[in-house]
Amino acid sequence: MAPIIRICDAKDYVGQVVTVRGWLQRLTGKGKLNFLRVRDGSGIFQAVAFRPTLGDEKFALVNRLTTESSIILTGAIRADPRAPGVPGGYEMDLHDIEVVQLAEEYPIAPKEHGIEFLLDRRHLWLRSNHQWAIMRVRAAVIRAIRDWLDDHGFLLVDTPILTPAAGEGTTTLFKVDYHGVPAYLAQTGQLYNEANIFAFGKVYCFGPTFRAEKSKTRRHLQEFWMVEPEIAFCTLEELLEIEEQFVSAIVQTVLERCRHELALLERDTTLLQQVVPPFPRLTYDRAVELINAAAAQGVTVPPHDEPVPPITWGDDFGAPHETFLAGQFDKPVFVTHYPTAAKAFYMEPEPERPEVCRSADLLAPEGYGEIIGGSERISDPDKLREAIRRHNLPEAVYEWYIDLRRYGSVPHSGFGLGIERTVAWITGISHLREAIAYPRVLGRLWP
Ligand code: 4AD
Ligand code: MG
User: Fold this and answer.
1) What atom in ligand 1 is closest to the CA of residue 418?
2) In Å, what is the CA distance from 370 to each residue of 316, 322, 366, 422?
């Protein structure tokens, strides 16, 4: 019996007869010759059906195959640098074929479909080449993240999804009923990370987070994945160094491991290759000056040549502001020292200038916007209590969090990297909905 192999391993079986199990993407050819483009989850290749080799009966069977039919192919692997596919360069001379199921007429055709049509059929759309490549890059991003953190002394500590209090703004809370008591789906694991550093020094949590975002944008999901490292005895300046090492390692590792996927996506990786430390740093003050100078000159930003609107000191950036700022640099750029009032309650104000805080966002190039939000945290219990009051948050549910500042408080910092934004940036896709298998965007809970 021929060994069962995966398409990605075809290079190791040149000249041998093997079996591949997969699905038919497309059938072309005529007369005595048919070409079957086949995918098996690990790769894509072409099997060549030649009537004299296959026999009349099996050849007729091939001719009846429909798109997405499940098939078991046996044949000889041949190396040919021109052979299409992923990784490409290998094809199969078909000796035998077994049809597991002749698929019904497949709703997704090679032609262009509208986005709602495709999202309604996300469970099928995932099979298409682009989606396949994006999901594989996502898995590589996640693996690179875990490897880097695990190798740099960070302990993975999982944080709860059902929480009693807001971690970020209260306007995006998803409320659920916890046996008669209100609870909220986690917007962040950060507050628990802050408890965990006092036990473990450097920690991270990694999981789904939830934000009831009220507007539909290409950068916002209702459910997204975030990795959040948190570090004891760490200032904002030290945090930025960790972030640039971390992001560079992710990008370079994925470029190396996902060459085929990025080629399939036709991603121009020129700028990604330049993602190495150090990253430029810009204060919020300076960013506001740059934005207002650009607005006065009528500068526009891609993708729709939107003019950069002027900004008032104190306001948060909009998407065109971020795109403009990031566009001034080839690498991701840190914007630091945002107005304290515009940011979350836990951020440490700058001692000499409390109207700004020791925060930093990292903006990705090419219009992908904020991929990281982070800061130094308030380490004094009284200042923290005051900040909680100022934000009109219910003090009682934060008592445990204030406690952390009572028993061996230290300067500490952390950040959160959004997985979908990072995947969208690396793959070069324009919308976050393709960076996760089953996107939850405003108004969609299906499939
Ligand atoms: O800036 P954010 O809100 O920061 C926090 O949640 C902190 N607690 C993190 C920390 O310091 N531990 O979110 C962090 C990142 C953003 O930079 C962005 O990449 C992503 O999470 N993000 C979203 N991604 C998709 N859809 C949304 N609605 C997102 N909101 C934030
Ligand atoms: Mg943020």
Assistant:
1) 19
2) 12, 7, 11, 9
- Locate tokens 């700058």: which residue? 350
Q: Which atom of ligand 1 is nearest to 421's Cα? A: 19
Q: What is the pLDDT of residue 165?
A: 87
Residue nearest to atom 30 of ligand 1 (CA): 220
Distance CA 230, CA 204 (A): 6
Which ligand 1 atom is at minimum distance from the Cα of 213? 28
Distance between CA atoms of 232 and 235, rounded to whole angstroms? 9
φ, ψ (nearest 5 deg) of residue 49: -100, 115
Strands 359-364 and 181-185: unpaired
For residue 331, how many C-alpha atoms fall within 13 Å in the half-sphere facing its CB?
18
Which residues in the chain come in under a pLDDT of 50? none
Residue 229 CA, ligand 1 centroid: distance in Å: 12
Which domains are delineated in the chain? 7-101 (2.40.50.140), 122-280+329-434 (3.30.930.10)
Which letter, b or e, does each residue of 182-211 get, where b requires 16 or more Cβ atoms within 10 Å of its Cβ? ebbbbbbbbbbbbbbbeebbbbbbbeebbb
Cα R_g (the chain), whole angstroms: 26
- By CB atoms closer than 10 A (0-12, 13-18, 19+), residue 323 is buried
Distance, CA 415 to ligand 2 centroid (Å)?
Answer: 10
Gap from CA of 372 to ligand 2 centroid (Å): 7
**What pLDDT is stored for residue 166 in this prediction?**
85
State the DSSP H helix or E strand holding residue 138, giving kind and residue range, or none if neither. helix 129-151
> Which one of the ligands is nearest to 188 CA?
1
Residue 377 CA to ligand 1 center (angstroms) comes to 16
Which atom of ligand 1 approaches the CA of 167 most closely? 8
Mutate to test the pocket of ligand 1, among 204, 417, 421 (most ligand atoms within 8 A of CB): 421
- Tallying the residues shown for the chain, one arrives at 447
Query: What count of other Cβ atoms lies within 10 Å of the Cβ of residue 216?
Result: 10
pTM attached to this predicted model: 0.97
